Known about the structure:
12 helices; mainly alpha; single chain
Amino acid sequence: MTTLILSVAALVTVASAVRSTWSPCGLSMLASITPLSETGRGNRFRTTAAWFVVGSTIGGLTLGLGVAILAVGVHGLALSSTAAGVAALVITILAVASDAGVKGLRVPVHHRQVNERWLDQFRPWVYGAGFGWQIGTGLATYITSAAVYLMIVLGALGGSPVWAVSLGMAFGLVRGLSVLLGRNITNPDELRAFHRRFVDAGPKVGRITVVSEVAAALAIAWSVSPMIGVGVSGALTIAGAGWLARRATAGVAGHASHPSTPDPTPDAGHLERVTVR
Length: 277
C-alpha cells in the first residue's frame, strides 16, 4: 500500500503543480517575468528566470521538509496498510469533491500574492529567487486546487521522509519551470495573445486535475478492497454523470442569457503596466 500511495502522490504532485500555474499568482508571474518586462527593466530574462526556477525548487524543498516531518510522525504511528489506504482514500475523495465543486464544497484557501513592488526595489536575483521560493512552497501564495493539500497528505501517509522531500522538490521544480511559458513574449501584442490562450486553457487544466484525482481515488479504493473499489467506482460514476449534466445545463442557460461571451483575458492595460516599466 505504501508504494501505491507514493506512486499516486507523485501523480498528484505533478497535477497540482501544473494546476497551480493557473492561479492569480501564476498569472501575475507570467505577466511580470517575461523577455518583454525584463528588457524594460534593463535585465536579462534568462538570468531572472534561472533564479526563479532555483528559488522555486528551494521552496519545494522547504515544503518537502515539512511533509517529511509529518511522514516521520505517520511512520511512528505504524498504521496498518488498510488504515493508511482508507485515510488516503477519504482525503482523495474530498479533494475530488472540492475541485469538482460538488455541492459548493471548497477546502480552505488564502488569497495572497507576491509583492510586485519587489520588481522595482530589488535586483533580479532577489525578486526572481524570492518570488520563486514563495510559489514553490505551494502554501505561501494563492491556493487554487485541493490537489496541493492532497499531495501533502499523501506524501505524509507514505511514511518516507526521503520521498516526501522528493515530492516537494518536484512540485517546486514544476512550478518554477512554468516561467518558461512566457519565454517568447517580446512585445505587448504577444503578451495579450499569450494570456488569452492561457486563460482559455484554464478550465481544461482544471478538468484534467479532477480526472487525475479520480484516478488516484480509484487506484487506492481497489487496492484497499475490491468491494470498496466497486462502491467508489459506482459512486464516482454517478457523481460524474450528474456533474457533467449540470455543466451542460448551465452551459446552455449561460449561452442563452449571455450570447456574447466577454473576453476572459485580463485587462491588457494592466498587463502592460505590470510588465513594461
